[in-house]
Amino acid sequence: MAPDRILFYQPLRTEDGSPTLVHPVFGEAYSSRHGAWMQANELYLKLTRTHQHPAPRVLEIGFGLGVNFRATLENCVQRGVPLEYLSYEFLPVSREVLASVEVPLSPHARRVWEEVLTNWPAYPQTFLALQGTWGRLGIHFEDVMTAQFPPRWASAVYLDPFSPQVNPEPWQFPVLERLLAALQPGGYLATYSVAGQVRRNLEAAGFRVEKVPGVGKKAWTRAKRP
Length: 226
Ligand SMILES: C[S@@+](CC[C@H](N)C(=O)[O-])C[C@H]1O[C@@H](n2cnc3c(N)ncnc32)[C@H](O)[C@@H]1O
Fold this sequence. Notes:
The protein has 226 residues and is of the alpha/beta class. The protein has helices spanning 36-47, 67-79, 95-99, 107-119, 173-182, 196-205; strands at residues 10-13, 19-22, 57-61, 83-88, 127-132, 135-140, 154-159, 183-191, 208-213, 219-224. It has a single domain (6-120, 134-224), classed as Rossmann fold. Helix 1 packs across helix 2 and helix 5 (173-182) packs across helix 6.
């Protein structure tokens, strides 16, 4: 969709061997340098307990390279449970860039991902919707600052913008307050940031916030809608 080219993005091999890219303007990697695939699975999928949910509904901030989507899809097709995945992305990469980042997938999940690539918009579009026996994917190509989230819809929220230093808007109270309203009671939000201001904003929005051990010295944040 965006007029971007793979050569604008710096490729990075993360510590678990999976690839990511460094964004040319934000100057940050799309996923953790400790492991892109690891982060998608351990932080987003498992910390929100999506890996055990019988019919997960995930709301994601920042579709990026679709790594979190693919990790969640893989888990759901392995378990034979339907997935509903709703993501928001205001700067979508081109199909060429998206296709350049490969992660290990079973044949079933790979077929779904190929369908995403085939249907990935070549020109600006506001919404992408796909569905199959595996479930449904919806991507709103819009800014989360103005997006309307469905109330009490999500079993999990993956809060995955770039860092609060370079990409402060999605971490602010008005967005977090709307994310709380989009979660089902008892649902979890997970994010890689443990910045004090982010945690205070989450608490002010009404979440019950905990700092949990991540990888190495890195900690992660999990927040629950009471
Ligand atoms: C760290 S990357 C997300 C990686 C992604 N979750 C994945 O699994 O590959 C952050 C993404 O958030 C998007 N983003 C940042 N601010 C946004 C905003 N205000 N509205 C919508 N998307 C935003 C960026 O364009 C970028 O694609």
